[in-house]
Write a structure and sequence with these properties.
27% of the residues lie in helices and 31% in strands. By secondary structure, the protein is of the alpha+beta class. It has one domain: Nucleoside Triphosphate Pyrophosphohydrolase (Alpha-Beta Complex), CATH 3.90.79.
C-alpha cells in the first residue's frame, strides 16, 4: 500500500490498556477479555477518544465503561501512536473508519479494584489473566502484530 493510499484512510483515535494484576511486579500476568460480538475475539480493553478528551482521560473512562473499574495505576505509556486496519467485515460496522490509531498504556490494577463486565453496555463476556507468553495465542488475528510490538517494547524496557 502506498503512503498516499494509507493517508486517505480514516483512523479512529483510540486508547488501549495492557493491564497487569495487582500483584505486579511479582506476578506479571496480563488481562485479556473475550468480546461478546466477535466469536473467539480476545483483546485488551480499548476504546475511542471523545472530542476534547486526552488519551489518559479516555483510558480511565473506557476502563470504567468496559471492565467496571478505573482503579488502575499507569506504569508506562507506549511512546508512539500505532495504527491497524480493520478486516472488511468490521469496516462495514465501524464506518467511516478504516481502522484505529491507538495509544497504549501499561497499567496495574489497584488492590481495591473490582472487575465487573456487566456494565451499562457490556463489551466482554469473560476475562482471564494469562502469562506474557500466552497473550498472543488468544488474541484475534488482526491485532496480533500491534500487540506483539507493544508487549515486546514493554518487555525490552523492563516492565514485563
Amino acid at each position: 500500500m502506498s503512503e498516499e493510499q494509507k493517508s486517505e484512510k480514516r483512523y479512529r483515535p483510540n486508547v488501549a490498556a495492557v493491564i497487569v494484576s495487582c500483584e505486579y511486579p511479582l506476578n506479571c500476568s496480563i488481562f485479556i477479555a473475550l468480546r461478546y460480538d466477535i466469536e473467539g475475539a480476545w483483546q485488551f480493553p480499548q476504546g475511542g477518544i471523545d472530542e476534547g478528551e486526552s488519551p489518559k482521560e479516555a483510558l480511565f473512562r473506557e476502563l470504567k465503561e468496559e471492565i467496571g473499574t478505573k482503579k488502575v495505576e499507569i506504569i508506562a505509556e507506549y511512546p508512539e501512536w500505532l495504527s491497524y486496519d480493520f478486516p472488511q467485515k468490521i469496516v462495514e460496522r465501524m464506518y467511516p473508519y478504516d481502522g484505529q490509531m491507538q495509544k497504549y498504556f501499561l497499567v496495574r490494577l489497584k488492590k481495591s479494584a473490582n472487575i465487573n463486565l456487566k456494565t451499562k453496555h457490556p463489551e466482554f463476556t469473560e476475562y482471564k489473566f494469562v502469562d506474557f507468553n500466552e497473550v498472543l495465542d488468544s488474541i484475534i488475528y488482526f491485532k496480533k502484530p500491534i500487540y506483539k510490538k507493544v508487549l515486546e517494547y514493554f518487555k525490552k524496557e523492563g516492565y514485563l
